[in-house]
């Protein structure tokens, strides 16, 4: 696929490039909900991941996952304590483990430091969320796209956003473009979590990152420009397959930026997420009293960030699996032309919270992110997706990824809709 990325030459191969490419080891950073699923799924695919090391800020988080994987699958996971905000420490761990690939499942704040460490010590890189500065919630790729030359010149690859959204939603677009359309005109990404965790208020992944995302202004692309509107202001009811009718809200989500950049014919791109009334009521109160702010405040002589304090009192998303029932349904509705005819395609996955918990001890939100992280990693480890530079998911061949979704727990379906969306 011709893109601006593909022109850069490998002019200064990393001194360890041959050794890196021959390595069978993977280093996963971040032992949270998503890290747990990814490591379980890697351990189930020993022919691709014979040696797995899991590192995180607290060794106890790694120990917990390693014990679970040993209990369920009998596979030994090496563990290490690492503060990935520290580039030198991360480089040192890469040089000690000597992985082919570093899978970054820590928080978006660590992305650039881990990319630096990969360039320094030598390793390919993958993440599931774009870099965010701590002090301002901006979901933009330019910080990571700026690494294009450096990765390409030394022969290393960075794969950005290999989760579900971003991730699978980007691959769905690439697959639709490859197999179903001559020209794509509109994209609507619909993210429905029809699950119930039985708590008054909880988020399904890291609360700090989740609330920053949900309370940010909505933004969508239409007629060549981005349009901003207040958060959670535009509501539509949609009948989701196997879930039923849910209210979904227009939001901004990071994959819109790369998909608009890489799909020249797109006239409109939007992202929608479902929220229940109780979730929104709690969020409104928390916002009104200032608890979702990321501006530091002084409390008893100590500077604290209200949102980080809120995270500390909310349920841990990785503990929600035991009680969560219901399904997620995430997919893309794409319109465009094929052979001169207008066409509307809906491609989606349905995932059952309880089935995920039975398989790997996590709810579906962690599962639907951890499985694509494993798949992206597997395609890089086996060189099916391996080219120097910084890439978004839609820039790579969707077919092997789509096949692995079906094989590894996230089967997808598609249907043609009679008419385009009327909202
Ligand atoms: P969690 O909060 O459950 O886990 C994050 C883990 O990262 C924690 O175990 C934490 O460490 C570790 N960590 C945090 N800071 C550091 C650091 N400085 N050095 C090393 N480790 C660190 O989050 P999730 O698992 O829910 O989410 C993980 C990532 O996945 C996030 O970036 C999130 O945005 C992304 N995501 C992407 C989605 C997608 O579809 N693309 C959907 C959902 C999430 P410890 O426990 O050791 O203290």
Description:
Helix content is 35%, strand content 26%. With 423 residues, it is an alpha/beta fold. Helix 4 packs across helix 5 and helix 8 crosses helix 15. The model has no long low-confidence stretch (mean pLDDT 95). The protein has a domain at 168-358: Dihydrodipicolinate Reductase, domain 2, CATH 3.30.360. The longest helix has 18 residues, at 364-381. Strands 7, 8, 9, 10, 11, 12, 15, 16 and 18 form a nine-stranded mixed β-sheet that branches. The protein has helices spanning 17-22, 33-43, 59-73, 87-97, 111-122, 142-145, 148-153, 168-179, 207-215, 255-262, 277-288, 306-313, 353-360, 364-381, 398-407, and strands spanning 25-29, 51-56, 78-81, 101-104, 124-127, 157-160, 183-193, 218-222, 225-229, 235-240, 244-251, 268-274, 297-299, 302-304, 327-338, 341-352, 389-392, 412-417. The chain contains 15 helices and 18 strands. A hairpin with a 2-residue loop joins strand 15 (327-338) and strand 16 (341-352).
